[in-house]
Amino acid sequence: MKRILAAASLLALAASPAFAARDQIRIVGSSTVYPFTTTVAEQFGKTSGMKTPVVESTGTGGGFKLFCASVGEDSPDFTNASRAIKKGEFEDCAKNGVTDIVEIKIGFDGLSLAQSKAAPDLGLSKQQVFMALAAQVPDKDGKLVPNPYKTWSDIDPSLPNVKIEVLGPPPTSGTRDSFAELVMEKGAEKFESLAELKKSDAKAFEKVWKSMREDGAFIEAGENDNLIVQKLQANPNALGIFGFSFLEENAATIKDVAVDGVKATYETIADGSYKVARPLFVYMKKQHVDVIPGMKEFVAEFVSEKALGEEGYLAEKGLVTLPGDQLEKVKATVEGMVVLTAADVK
Amino acid sequence: MTEVRKGLIAKRYATERRFRIYGATALALTALFIVFLLADIVIKGLPAFTEPRVKLDVTGAADKVDAAKPAAGDYEAIVREALRARFPTVSGRAERRKLNGLLSQGAADDLRRMVVADPALIGKTFPFAALLSDDADLFYKGRQTGVALTKGATSLQFAESGEAYVITGDVAGLSPGQIVLVNEGALRITGIANGAAQAEALARPVTLNPAAAGGWNIMTLAKPEADRRISDQEIIWLEELKSEGVVEKAFATRFFTSGDSREPELAGLRGALVGSLLTVLVALALSIPLGVAAAIYLEEFAAKNRLTDIIEVNINNLAAVPSIIFGLLGLAMFLSFFGLPRSAPLVGGLVLALLVLPTIIIAARAALKAVPPSIKEAALGVGASHQQAVFHHVLPLALPGILTGIILGLARAFGETAPLLMIGMVAFIVDIPKGFESAATVLPVQIFLWSDLPEIAFQSKTAAAIMVLLAVLFSLNAVAIYLRRRFERRW
Lengths: 346, 491
Prior knowledge:
The structure holds two protein chains of two kinds. Chain A has two domains: 23-108 and 279-344, D-Maltodextrin-Binding Protein, domain 2 (3-Layer(aba) Sandwich); 110-277, 3-Layer(aba) Sandwich (D-Maltodextrin-Binding Protein, domain 2), CATH 3.40.190. Residues 9-19 of chain A have low confidence and may be disordered. By secondary structure, chain A is α/β, with parallel strands linked by helices. In chain A, strands 1, 2, 3, 4, 8, 9, 10, 11 and 13 form a nine-stranded mixed sheet that branches. In chain A, 42% of the residues are buried. Chain A contains 16 helices and 13 strands. In chain B, the strands form two sheets. Chain B has a seven-stranded antiparallel sheet. Chain B has a three-stranded antiparallel sheet with strand order 2-1-10. The mean pLDDT of chain B is 89. Chain A binds chain B through residues 3-4, 7, 10-11, 14-15, 17, 19, 22, 24, 26, 31, 34-35, 38-39, 41-42, 45-46, 51-52, 54-57, 74, 117, 223-226, 243, 245-246, 248-252, 311, 317-318, and chain B through 97, 109, 144, 223, 226-229, 261-263, 282, 285-286, 289-290, 293, 335, 338-343, 346, 350, 424, 426-431, 436-437, 439, 449, 451-456, 459. Strand 2 (54-56) of chain A pairs antiparallel with strand 11 (427-428) of chain B.
């Protein structure tokens, strides 16, 4: 009996909800922004003497869901996003009382299409990528047919006679969304028939560029970009889709495929000539600023020259930083804690 | 007739032989896979247990460190100055930045700790081993490029021409990209024309004396500069440090004593180990009493009827439920309903307790069932109550089996990641958890997080962390086997 009592009291002790107020910043969101936010978090923890923020990697969508759930200690203070907040998410936030959101644009992430160093150089246009990867492509008469292309040379005789094999992220990934929007959609628009379809039936058009082929030419290789890099090394014929920082780290074994004649480099992404790039954001819950200690100091560290500057430590981690004037604008936003309005959200 | 029988026998023997071959092949294949896997992990992981440091003479100058407040000193500047003192020719901001980049951020932290522990060092010059950056670390471990040094077989003359150098003499053996080491300098060949080689200085030679055969060296780097993270310049510096014998390779204790970090050379497992320990403690504190009590009740006391049948079937079903479901349950129950904190070992432990409960109940029931009924009957026969018979006689005999079940459940709890994803334990956490309610992560989650980072040095950290996790799991299993052997009774 005594033992049972002891066990019961242990349980009661464990379940008593007497928790002190939170004094640690909590951040959720995109796995693409995670490497950068964690770097800032660590620096902040080292230099400020406050607790190091906890950064969860939940994905952009999952991050907004948690972020918008409520105002209060049990919801996160920041969320990372590899795309801007959507109207629906903004409305969700507002409905749950999260009305004061500050949007902080921290830089760009290039999506690179890369291949093994062992393979001959390749250059593709977005239209060619679309033709290689879409589940349905228009034929000569503009009618949609299941993708007939087996090799790159089927698409364009100037391309090598090599089987189409592209490794990419699964649909749950923000990288996949961005790739579809930046490459597949743009590539599809190049077809007259599809451009017309866009005007007449936007939903059907979206389905065309969002559906990737499932006959083995496009291989979903999981969320782990390192895995794709390793598979590229093993198979010189395959192409891979992943974030620019992985290309930079693995420059010894893989190289970039030029898209529309432009290679992904730090410079081409920063000046906007490489089009397959997306902005990265951190969203802040302004309502928490006076409740959770350290939030102001944390964003100040984030947008400081030391972190976000051209030679800052985030650039060293592979982030393509903002050009000077844009950085000034972001700094002003943070300084003034300018909140998003419905008009800012698309 | 005998012919037929002989044929049949031969066929039966052949079948048996075939079956044996299948079995042996399957075993051999499995063993091969395991050996391959382990070898791969060990080869990748072993380098992470050592770290290169450069021995420097640092001066705790009074203008950088205030004796009253030693923690606030500018230790970064002190370490950088000490390194720069080794390379007096390095000038210019860009070059200095590069040289500073060889040092890890952790070097300054180490120095701070050293001085704070012994303030008498302020104002003195003392030896200090500064941690090098991950790129330098990888270079010394041979993961950046191969370096080949050959003695120069011809004699060369050198001349300065503006910023660049011209090498004359027998330069037929040289090619662009190679580095000529001469007169304590390093010249990289940029081009060869008309029997003379153009070169730029990576480190300026002290003199321009001509060099005879054997008096100079050619350094050939296997990978071109564009293909690696470390430049020729940095390699020259690192090679120089190495040849001067000031680079030491030490066991990386920080791998076990520090928390997570975004700098590969600083990242450690302590946070994850403590988190794992706390989480598993909570899980065991709940699941052992509940599981064993449930097993005893179901096996010895409960009436055998429809209800207990249903319960039994459901316990067996629960053991087969994918672990992520328990995470969802944890999110809905413990976080949303009870309002427990996110990322806390307390919640992780509760979820894992639910996860291992069926395993423990099933193992404990099997162990209780294996005790011969005669033991209990004898106890009842001499007048013991039902409860006395169970607790005094059956349970002690079943304990080894129950313990084995508990340890196997423990091992499962140690290796789980999926349920922890939902309750926020898959996170970057630097601070070592201080209690059951502070944010924490666990060992397998740490492995998952490291495997997803772009820095190449994290790949070997990942493998090393897997080695630690495997060591923990193997030793748990070894304890289980030992207990079974030691206390097992056969009837």
